[in-house]
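[step 3/7] inverse_fold.run input=structure_tokens len=268
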């Protein structure tokens, strides 16, 4: 596929699930290309959340290719997710009105606990019954109202440390926004804190983020952690990845124990 008007550039795959990302190199110059990126990318670039968007180009077949600055950087290590830089960038994302405005214009509607519960139910109803899933679903149903929040922001929803890139100038970026949603910020906070931060350090990390650790936030985060673990497990089952699905099932068992320990009134 012809991305450039001359043959000076060598194009190679950048990997990824979709196969739509490429790296172009000419001499010492490198550019990151992606086919059919969302227009949301332009706002992310303007906000300094992703590497600078250089230009876009429409190909003869109708595809649109984005050209971004290629970073000489590295992915964060899991141990670095507790850093102030991560907390501050995530807070910047969660308080950005332009991001919410643009994602709304692209047709995204705010997610609620009820809409997520409905998705979990639809994804589970035709599967083999599983006691751990039944217990988790019961908790989600009982707490959906209490765990809902009127605060809706743009959430990345794939907070894996591999999506955080630190460049050679010590500038941090969050990339791979294909799963972005408008939702309770507790969705992102849950994934980050449960996966990467010891519970004893949640209060301190959230202070750097700019949010007190209230009982309501604890419930909201736990609710989203259970719902997302279910959806991740279902996804791996649907893609015939039993080992990965089993890992999420083990996580679910631990979360269920946590539910009854800290949210006992909802488990009786």
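[step 3/7] decode complete -> sequence:
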């Amino acid at each position: 596929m012809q991305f450039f008007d001359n043959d000076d550039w060598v194009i190679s795959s950048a990997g990824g699930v979709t196969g739509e990302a490429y790296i172009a190199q000419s001499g010492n110059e490198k550019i990151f290309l992606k086919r059919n990126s969302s227009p949301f990318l332009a706002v992310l670039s303007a906000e300094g959340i992703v590497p600078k968007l250089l230009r876009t180009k429409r190909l003869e077949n109708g595809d649109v290719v984005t050209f971004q600055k290629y970073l000489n950087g590295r992915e964060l290590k899991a141990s670095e997710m507790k850093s102030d830089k991560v907390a501050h960038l995530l807070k910047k994302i969660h308080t950005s009105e332009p991001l919410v405005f643009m994602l709304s214009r692209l047709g995204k509607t705010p997610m609620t606990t009820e809409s997520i519960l409905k998705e979990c139910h639809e994804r589970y109803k035709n599967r083999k019954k599983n006691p751990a899933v039944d217990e988790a679903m019961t908790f989600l149903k009982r707490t959906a109202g209490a765990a809902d929040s009127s605060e809706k922001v743009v959430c990345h929803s794939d907070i894996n440390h591999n999506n955080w890139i630190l460049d050679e100038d010590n500038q941090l970026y969050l990339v791979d926004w294909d799963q972005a949603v408008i939702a309770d910020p507790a969705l992102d906070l849950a994934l980050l804190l449960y996966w990467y931060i010891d519970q004893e350090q949640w209060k301190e990390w959230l202070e750097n983020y700019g949010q007190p650790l209230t009982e309501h936030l604890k419930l909201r985060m736990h609710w989203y952690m259970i719902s997302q673990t279910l959806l991740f497990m279902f996804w791996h089952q649907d893609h015939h990845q039993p080992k990965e699905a089993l890992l999420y099932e083990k996580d679910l068992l631990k979360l269920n124990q946590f539910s009854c320990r800290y949210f006992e009134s909802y488990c009786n």
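[step 4/7] annotate
The longest strand covers residues 29-35.
The chain has two domains: 10-70, 75-266.
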